[in-house]
Amino acid sequence: MSDVWDQIEAEARGAYRGAGRFPLRAYSEAMPPPYVGLKPYRLGRGAATFGVSSGDALDIDEYEQAHDLEPGLERIADHLVRELGKLVRGEGHAISHALLADNPAWPAELAAAAKAGALKHDPLVVICALALSRSQDDKGNDRWTLFGGSHDGPAAAFWHDLDEARLAELLAWAKLDRAWRIVGDPGPALRGRVLGGALGDTRTVVTFEPFAQLPAEVRAGYLAGTLAIVPTPASLVFYTCPRYRALADHLPRATQIPLLHLFPRVEGSCTIRIPQSGWLDEKDPAQQLVRTHRWQRIARDADIHGDGMYTDKVSTALFSTDPEAIDLYDKPLARNAQIWTREFALLLDGQHTNRAALAYAAGVVDAGGRFGYRMYYPPMRAGMRELFWHVPVVARPGERYAAAPRGYVTAEAEAGARLVLAPKLLARPPHVTAARQFAKDPGHARYTASHNIRKLLDARELLGAPLAKSLARALLHVAKQTTLDDWLADLPHHAAHRADGHALAKALRELIADDREPGPPHVLTDLGTRAVEEQIWSSIAELAHGEFRQKNDADGIKVNRGKHGGPAAKLAHVQAHERRDLEALGDHLHAKYRALIDKHGMRGRAEVVDHVFAWQTDYAFPWMEGWQKNQQAPHERNIVLMIPGKHRGEAIVMGDHYDTAYMEDVFYAESGGDALRAPACGADDNHSATTALLVAADHLLPLARDGKLERDVWLVHLTGEEFPADCLGARALGQALVEQRLAFTAEDGSTRDVADVRVCGVFVLDMVGHNSDRDRDVFQIAPGEGAGSFDLARRAHEANLKWNRLAAAWNGAPERHAAGRAQRMKDRAPPPMFRHLALHGEVRVEWEPRSALYNTDGQIFSDLGVPVVLFMENYDISRKGYHDTHDTLENIDLDYCAAVIAIAIETVADAACAKQL
Q1: Closest CA to 844 of 782, 787, 776
Q2: Residue 418, domain member (yes or no)
Q3: 870 pLDDT higher than 90
Q4: Is the dihedral of CA 132, 133, 134, 135 positive or negative?
Q5: Is residue 229 one of the residues assigned to a domain?
Q6: What is the DSSP letter of 351?
Q7: Residue 125: pLDDT over 80
Q8: Cα separation, 486 vs 493, whole angstroms
Q9: Does 540 lie in the same domain as 503?
Q10: Fewest CB atoms within 10 Å of the CB: 576, 670, 700, 773?
C-alpha cells in the first residue's frame, strides 16, 4: 500500500488537464486555497513546499506552533471557557437562543438548573474539537484559520489515539482523578472503562453524549452535584443544534458554523484567523463588513480588523457591482461567503456556485430579510483534496491543557473516501530555538530575529548546499552597515538563553561558505553603456507620455461622463477618453519586436505572438467597455516574444504588465477627486518593466542567433495586472499552463501550440525605476515558494554581484569618474551623465512581511508552483508616484532603473543558458 501522499499525488495527476479543469478567478472575487504538499503545476514531493517530510503526516513547523497556533489556541480556549462558563452559571452570554432551542445538549432541565444557579459545582472542563486549516488572505499570507467546530463531531478528535494512561493524566490535571467511567463509544483502547450499568462509586463521567440522551442516573447525579461530567455538558451545544444539522444536508460542513458564531468580528485580532460570521439584516445598516484589498497602503502583516464601525453593509459588500460600491479596489465578496435564510435553508455556497445562482441569491437578499452568513475562504488543498486538522481544545478556567490529544488531519474530496494524515509537530532543534527564544520586535508584531534565522536555515535546505556568505547576508533584514559576522556575533545576546543562542550561531556558521568566484557575464558587459541608458529613458518616455493614455483593461468607463478629476487632474492635464489604448499599445510592441528580430537576423526563428483569452467574471460590469467587449468574443491578450533556444521543450519567462492603474488622486474625494477613473501615465508602474523587456530582446536575440541559449526565452507582456482586471493575464497564462493547453496566435492568425513546453522559471518585473528616498539603492529579489524559486533568486543575487563589480570598474572611466547620481528630470530630456550605482538586492522570501510578491503577478505563479522571482524596487506603497498623477518621468531614477534592468536581464540570460534547471 502506498503512503497517503502518494495516493493524493496519483489521483491528482492529469486531473487538471483540459480546458476549464482549473478555473483561476480573480483573487479579489474568489480567494483561492493555498496548495500544500503538492502544487498544481509541479506535482510530486520533489517540488513540494510544505508539509511532506513523512508519507502519512502533515508537517506543522516550529514557527506556526510558537507564533500562531499556541497563542491562538490559548485565546480561543479562554473565550470558550468564559462564554460557556456564563451559560453554566446562568449569566448573560454570547450563545444565541436559536442555537440553544431544541438542542439536546442543553435541554430545559439543564437550562432551568443553570438559571437557578444550581450548576456552580461544575468544574467547567471544556473540550471542543475544532476544524482548523490554512487559508490565504488578500495579502498573500497563508494563515491558520478557525473554520469552526469539527464537522466530525465533538468526540472523534479527542478519542483518536487516546489511551487510558493519557486520559487519566488529563483528569488528574482537571483535579478529577476520582473513580471515573466513560459513557459512549471511545474506541477499542478505552472500551474497558465504559460504564456498563449503575454508577456505583463513579464520581466522574467522561462523555460526549448530549445531556438529554444520558442515562437518568447520570443526569440526576450531575444536577445534584455528586457527579462531575467531562467535558461540561455546555461544550456540546455547538455540535448538536438541529437547525445546523439540517442545513448540513445541503451545505457540507455546516456543523462547523455554530462554534464560529461565538467569535464575532475578530478577523485580525487573533493569531489564528477567525473570519467574520453572523446574521445580516438588509434593513439594518448597523451590521457591516470590512473589505480589504492588496493595494491598501499598509504593511502586509498589519492587523486589519473591524471595530464595530464598518464602512459597507454586508449585502453591499457581498453583491453590489455599482461603481460607487466597488470603489477603485473592491469586488463583490459573495464567492467567499456562505448564506442561508432565517429558516436555515441554503441560499448560497459561494465556492460551489455559478453566475446564475449568484444573481438569484443577490435578488433574494436585495428583497430584504434576515440571513445567516459566514465568510468562507477555502481551506488548504493537496491535489484534489481539502485538508482539515481536527484538533481538540481542552481547557478550564485560567488554563489550557497543552498535552491534549493532537487529533488528526483529514484529506477530503467531494467523492470517495477521505484519507487521514497525522499532524506532525516538527521539533528541529535550531528551528525550535529560533521560534521560541527570540522575542517580537519592540512595539511591533514582527519576529525579525526569528525570521532572519529561519531564512538562513530554510535557504540551506532549499539549495541543498552551503549558503554563500553574500547570499546569507542578502537574506537578512538588518541595518545596512551590519555585516553577517557582526550579526552572528550579536545573535546570542538576543536569545532568551545565552547558551542556546551561542549553539544556534555556531550551527548557522556551519551552513555558510565563502563566496565562489562568479562566472563570466552573459550580457552585462553590453548593458553598462550610455546608449543603453538613453534607450531606457526614451522608451519609458514614449510609453508613458506618448499617444497611449487609456491603458487599463476596463477602459472606457461610461460613468466617467461629466467628471473632471479635480485639482490634481487639472494640474496634470488629465483627460479620460471613452476608448482603450491597450490594443494600440500592443500593436506598438509587436512592431518594436519585429524590428528587433530583423535587426539581429532572427526572422523565421524568433516570433512575436499573442496569447488571446477572454476576461470572464461571475459578475456583470456593463459600465466598463473593456469588460463588455469580452462578452461577445475574447478581447484580451498577453504579448509574447518567443526567442528560440536549443531545446524548445523548456522556456524561461521574463514578464511585466503593460496596463496601468487608475489614479487615486483624481478619484478619491479626500484628494480632491470626483470618482474619475483615469489611468496613470505609468512611467514606473509599469513601463519601467515594459522597457526592460524591450531592452532584453535587444541582448537576448543575439544569444539565440549564436546558439548560446539552452532553452527558449519568452518575453511576456501580461495584461490586466491592475484592478479591476486583477492579474488577468497572469491568471490566464497560469491556468493554461496547469491545464496543459497553452497556445499562442501568430500575426498571420495561425496557432503555435506550446502546451508541452515546460516553463522552468518566471522572472516578473514590476516597478523597477524609482530609488526610494527612505532606503536608497535597495531593490527586491523576491522568490516564490519552493526550491526552484530560491535557485532563481540565487542566480539573481549572483547577477547583482557581477553588476556591482563591473560598475566599480566602469566608474573609473573619465566620463563617469567625477559624475554624481542621476538627476530626476521634469521633462523628456535624459539626465546628464552619472555614475553607475552599486545596488543591494535584498532576497525577500515569499512569507516575510517586506516581500511585495503578493502585490504582483508573481503571486499567481508562486501559488501554482511555477518557480518565480520578482524584481522590484524597494517598494514604498505610500509614496507619491504610485497609482497617481505623479507616476511620470519625474519620479524615474535612471541610474537605479538601468542597474536593476541590467541585473534582471543578466539573470534571465543565466537561467536560459544553464545546462540544467
Answers
A1: 782
A2: no
A3: yes
A4: negative
A5: no
A6: G
A7: yes
A8: 12
A9: no
A10: 670
Rg of the chain taking only CA atoms, in angstroms: 30
Q: How large a percentage of the chain has pLDDT more than 70?
A: 95
pLDDT at 312: 35
Residues paired with residue 7 on neighbouring β-strands, in sequence order: none
- Bigger pLDDT: 298 vs 864: 864
CB 171 within 8 A of CB 205: no
Query: On the CB side of 283, how many CA atoms lie within 13 Å of its CA?
Result: 4
Is the pLDDT confidence value at 223 over 50?
Answer: yes
**pLDDT, tens digit, 9 for 90 and up, residues 675-699:** 999 999 999 999 999 999 999 999 9
The three cell numbers of residue 443 are 512595539
CA 722 – CA 658 distance, rounded (Å): 10
Q: In what order do the strands lie in the sheet with 743-745?
A: 751-753, 743-745, 607-613, 636-643, 711-718, 647-657, 758-765, 868-873, 778-783, 840-843
Distance CA 62, CA 421 (A): 18
pLDDT in the model for residue 1: 42
532 and 608 inside one domain: yes
Please tell me whether residues 729 and 848 are part of one structural domain: yes
Q: Residue 342: what pLDDT?
A: 93
**Nearest partner of 536 among 244, 201, 897, judged by Cα:** 897
In degrees, to the nearest 5, what angle opens at C-alpha 473 toward C-alphas 468 and 479?
A: 170
Higher-confidence position of 43 and 770 = 770
772: domain CATH number is 3.40.630.10
Q: Say yes or no to pLDDT of 303 above 60.
A: no
Q: In degrees rounded to 5, what are phi and psi of residue 387? A: -110, 135
From the CB of residue 444, how many other CB atoms can be counted at a distance below 10 Å?
Answer: 11
Separation of alpha carbons 723 and 555, rounded Å:
11
CB 72 within 8 A of CB 890: no
Give how far Cα 901 sits from Cα of 276, 366, 680, 779, 792, Å.
43, 51, 22, 11, 16
Residue type, 150: S
Using CA atoms of 456, 457, 462, 465 in order, give the dihedral in degrees to the nearest 10. 80
Of 292-301, 380-389, 473-482, which gets the smallest average pLDDT? 292-301
> Which cell numbers in the block locate residue 861?
505563479
Residue 335 clears pLDDT 90, i.e. is over it: yes
Cis peptide before 831, with omega less than 30 degrees from 0? no
Cell of 360: 438569484
Residue 147: inside a domain: no
Whether residue 592 sits in one domain with residue 487: no
Higher pLDDT, 96 or 455: 455
User: Dihedrals φ, ψ of 692, to 5°?
Assistant: -60, -40
Task: Please state the length of the chain.
Answer: 917
Q: Which residues contact 478 (CB under 8 A, 6 or more apart)?
A: 452, 487
Rounded distance between C-alpha atoms, residue 21 and residue 535, angstroms: 43
Same-domain check for residues 644 and 748: yes
Q: What is the mean pLDDT of residues 405-428?
A: 95
The CA distances from residue 356 to 359, 360, 361, in Å, are 5, 6, 9
Residue 530: pLDDT over 60: yes
Give the C-alpha separation, 131 to 273, whole Å: 12
Range of the domain at 314: 276-372
Question: Averaged over 649-665, what is the pLDDT?
Answer: 98
Report whether 657 contacts 872 (CB < 8 A). Answer: no
Q: Which three cell numbers stand for residue 56?
A: 502519512
Residues facing residue 382 across a β-bridge: 385
Cis peptide leading into residue 724 (ω within 30°) = yes
Residue 142, amino acid: D
Are 464 and 352 part of one and the same domain? Answer: no
- What total of structural domains would you count in the chain? 3
Q: How far is the C-alpha of 717 from the C-alpha of 540, rounded, in Å?
A: 15
What is the Cα–Cα distance from 151 to 137, expressed in whole angstroms? 23
Please tell me the predicted confidence (pLDDT) of residue 283: 62
**Can you tell me the mean pLDDT for 797-812?**
97
Let me know: does 68 contact 143? Beta carbons within 8 Å. yes
What pairing do the DSSP bridges indicate for beta strands 419-425 and 57-60? parallel
